[in-house]
Design goal:
The complex is a heterodimer of chains A (726) and B (100). Chain A is mostly helical. Chain A has 32 helices and two strands. Classes of the chains: A mainly alpha (726), B alpha+beta (100). Chain B: It is found in: Nucleus.
Chain lengths: 726, 100
């Protein structure tokens, strides 16, 4: 009977090669098998599980399902390990497994049926199970000897003579089962089938011979066949490469696609609806609207109306460039226009509009309110740039003079009040001129090009003139030239006593001529005592210390730069003035005072030794200097150790050591001796502190370095200092 | 008024916290600002999320300028000296009356 089912002969070895039994043939076969089952009364449903795995949703609950359990016992078991172990046992307890999961199976089945309503195919719960964990099930099924056994019994009853062959056939049939198929059904079709048409017919013949005489089963048969056909269709679907278990996903995707489609349609409808308004506005209308919007944003002078943004961007770009990063912060205007305008043409039109707006605005100055004839009130024309004024501050002449319009009043040479608001007013005026000067700097005409020297020269000349005028006004506002002694403190010192005033000085100095800078320095040195920063840090509160810090950071550096280029004569003059007009003991105890003293001393020493491009000072000048030095030394003698901060404060004292070094360089042997004697204790303290382990290595090194500043000036070194035994 | 616009323009791309007059405080990256100081924020996060859970899902927002009470700025992005100068310049310009 090896050819009874055609695949008998080939199957055991070629399970994997089963393919492409065409639909009709398959259906036919199924039908015949079905018929036979009905005829013989055998429970062919079992076989159907295998053959048509997905139309047996409720077969589980049918009678005589004991074989089901036996056959598919593993189906209910999510517990794979157990099942696999069972394959090695002789005692199969599949029924129990099935029973355990029966409710779940049923539920799942119902769900699944509901889901697939539209296909009309009822699937067995096994199928749905298989969907969920196909591989597990497969494995468990494969391992079971039972299915073939059951099938053998079926086939056996159907034809005793072919028991053995049927056994194989049954096996093949199970292989046909999707449950067994390794993922794709294409593989689980017997290839032998395709080429075995005659044998198929034989089957038919055989089946009809046995099952043909059962006409009363017709109706039921029909129904069954329908469902079978559908199942086959589903199988074919699988053959087409689309796994059946993804149908839910497919449906979902389809729904999604439908939604998208619908949305697109809606959008199109909306667009079409809007389209009827196309061309309602002419280009000039659009321009007009644009102009209204842009006129709020543009300005003819970005530095006037958009100062912060412009300067901030410029500063940031410069900073980034200094750090080696190309300025990636775009010019805000270009950024704006890029955002606004799509293409070049639009941008160009925008620019033209902007120009027109600007010129319009220049021609007709905006009115803040309009009075309509016959109306009782006024119509306010407020805008973002012209908000309604809520505060009416009466302006008093001298303070609110605008810088450009009329010349400010010259600084009052007579009695000058130093009330705080007056001084603050001066400072603000200084700022005003500084800003104007900085603005002028930005507008500096470019260097003349070839052939245009005359025009450019004219522009440069005019620019220089205006710049000079502004610089002069600023100079006046600083009140440096007010004679000393009329008021105390000197107006310029009053300005410097405000942090605002200190902050403006570096910016002022950029616009001053060298003579003016010298005057400023002279005035500062002459009135040094009256500076609020001229006091020891010990006596200054937090705010005072901040002021000192600010002075050291804003005023000292630019003046240091100036002094370090000054000739000997000027340095001598400045030091003479410094010593003459100030109490050196007091001044030297302040950080800024000490800084200036160090500055003068070291500069003079450098010049005396003939460094730099300056000629070596003649004897007269050197004598003058030596005399000054002795005066300074005598004043400070016995106070050198007092220059140091009290130890408790732990303050930085490097500036003191620096000053001592500057003193030591110019000192005679006797003076050096005095110096060493006076600060001996400090030297020892530092050396001892550095040698003990109390300090971190960096700190210790720093201390030794400080001491060495002084000792090296004397030709000594900290290592030579012998620490007395404690 | 222009000063604020000019100022906020430089903060585009910086994280800011906008406190609204209804006590909602929103932190986010400043996307843009206009002359009314309307503010667009991205990657927003409400400061008190427990109180305003409905804001959890919101990722960006547009804030009408008039409902802003405070804007907390990142200190390193503000040049206070320059801001003072800008204020001085604005003061120097002919005041709100007849301008231009």
């Amino acid at each position: 009977m090896s050819d009874f089912f055609g695949f008998n002969t080939v199957m055991p070895g070629r399970q994997g090669g089963r393919v492409a039994l065409n639909l009709e043939e398959q259906q036919e076969l199924d039908r015949q098998v079905q018929k036979y089952a009905l005829e013989t009364g055998e429970d062919f449903e079992i076989y159907d599980y295998g053959e048509t795995y997905d139309n047996l949703a409720d077969d589980l609950e049918e009678t005589r399902d004991d074989l089901n359990d036996e056959t598919f016992g593993g189906a209910g078991g999510a517990d794979e390990g157990k099942l696999i172990s069972l394959t090695n046992c002789t005692d199969f307890d599949f029924a129990k497994n099935t029973h355990q999961v029966a409710p779940a199976l049923k539920k799942e089945e119902e769900l699944y049926i509901k889901q697939n309503d539209h296909t009309g195919v009822r699937r067995s719960s096994f199928a749905s199970l298989w969907e969920n964990n196909g591989n597990n099930q497969q494995e468990s099924f494969k391992g079971l000897p039972e299915p073939s056994h059951a099938a053998s019994s079926i086939w056996g009853s159907f034809s005793n003579t072919t028991a053995k062959g049927m056994d194989l056939g049954g096996n093949a049939g199970f292989a046909h089962d999707p449950v067994f198929g390794q993922g794709t059904f294409a593989l689980s079709r017997p290839s032998g089938f395709g080429g075995n048409q005659p044998s198929l017919e034989e089957i038919e013949a055989q089946l009809s011979r046995t099952a043909g005489a059962q006409p009363h089963m017709g109706m039921q048969q029909e129904r069954k066949m329908m469902s079978l056909e559908e199942v086959e269709a589903a199988l074919m679907n699988i053959n087409g490469g689309r796994p059946i278990y993804s149908e839910a996903m497919i449906a979902e995707q389809q729904a999604k696609q439908a939604r998208l489609e619908q949305r697109r349609a809606e959008r199109q409808a909306k667009q079409a609806d809007i389209a009827k308004h196309n061309g309602l506005m002419t280009q000039s209308d659009k321009d007009f609207i644009n102009r209204i919007q842009i006129s709020q944003l543009v300005t003819d002078d970005p530095y006037a109306d958009d100062f912060y943004c412009q300067v901030y961007t410029a500063l940031r770009n410069r900073h980034l460039q200094q750090m080696g990063i190309p300025g990636n912060m775009m010019d805000p205007e270009s950024q704006d226009s890029r955002r606004r305008g799509g293409n070049g043409r639009t941008e160009q039109r925008m620019q033209q509009q902007v120009q027109r707006i600007v010129s319009d605005a220049k021609r007709n100055p905006k009115r803040t309110n309009v009075t309509v004839e016959g109306a009782l009130g006024k119509i306010a024309v407020n805008s973002v740039l012209n908000p309604r004024q809520l505060l009416q501050v009466s302006k008093r002449g001298s303070h609110t003079e605008s810088p450009g319009s009329n010349s400010p009043k010259p600084p009052s040479p007579g009695p000058v009040s130093t009330k705080s608001h007056t001084v603050l007013g001066w400072i603000e005026n200084v700022y005003t001129y500084v800003l104007a000067l900085e603005q002028k700097r930005r507008q500096q005409p470019p260097p003349p090009r070839m052939g245009e020297e005359e025009i450019a020269g004219e522009a440069i000349r005019r620019w220089n003139e205006e710049y000079g005028v502004l610089a002069h006004k600023m100079w006046n506002e600083l009140r440096i030239t007010v004679p000393i002694g009329i008021v105390h403190p000197h107006p310029f010192i009053s300005i410097l006593n405000y942090s605002k005033g200190k902050k403006v000085i570096p910016r002022v100095l950029r616009h001053l001529l060298p003579e003016q800078t010298l005057t400023l320095l002279t005035m500062l040195v002459a009135n040094f005592e009256s500076l609020n920063v001229c006091k020891s840090e010990v006596y200054a509160d937090v705010q005072g210390n901040q002021e000192i810090e600010l002075f050291m950071n804003t005023i000292v550096p630019p003046l240091l730069g100036f002094v370090s280029e000054a000739p000997f004569r000027i340095v001598v003059g400045l030091l003479a003035l410094f010593i003459e007009r100030n109490n050196m003991i007091w001044v030297a105890r302040s950080k800024p005072g000490l800084a200036f003293l160090t500055l003068f001393l070291s500069r003079a020493e450098i010049l005396k030794q003939g460094q730099g491009n300056y000629p070596i000072p003649d004897d007269r000048e050197v004598n003058q200097w030596n005399e000054l030095y002795h005066r300074l030394f005598n004043q400070l003698q016995t106070h050198f150790s007092a220059l140091f901060m009290p130890k408790a404060t732990m303050a930085e004292d490097v500036h003191v050591w620096r000053f001592l070094a500057a003193m030591a360089v110019g000192a005679t042997v006797d003076q050096q001796h005095v110096l060493v004697t006076e600060v001996r204790e400090q030297v020892l303290d530092n050396v001892i502190a550095a040698q003990t382990t109390r300090l971190s290595p960096e700190k210790a090194a720093q201390r030794i370095g400080n001491v060495n500043l002084f000792l090296h000036a004397l030709g000594l070194d900290a290592s030579q200092v012998s620490v007395p035994a404690m | 008024m222009k000063l604020f616009y000019s100022f906020f323009k430089t903060l585009v791309g910086q994280p800011v916290t906008v406190e609204l007059k209804n006590d909602l405080a929103i932190t986010g990256v400043l996307v843009s600002v206009d002359q009314f100081l309307n503010i667009k924020l991205d990657n927003i996060k409400v400061v008190d999320e427990e109180r305003y859970p409905h804001m959890l899902a919101v990722k960006n927002c547009f804030i009408r300028g008039s409902v802003v009470r405070y804007v907390q700025l990142p200190a390193p992005s503000v040049d206070t000296a320059l801001l003072q100068d800008a204020a001085r310049r604005e003061r120097q310009q002919p005041a709100a009356g007849p301008r231009k």
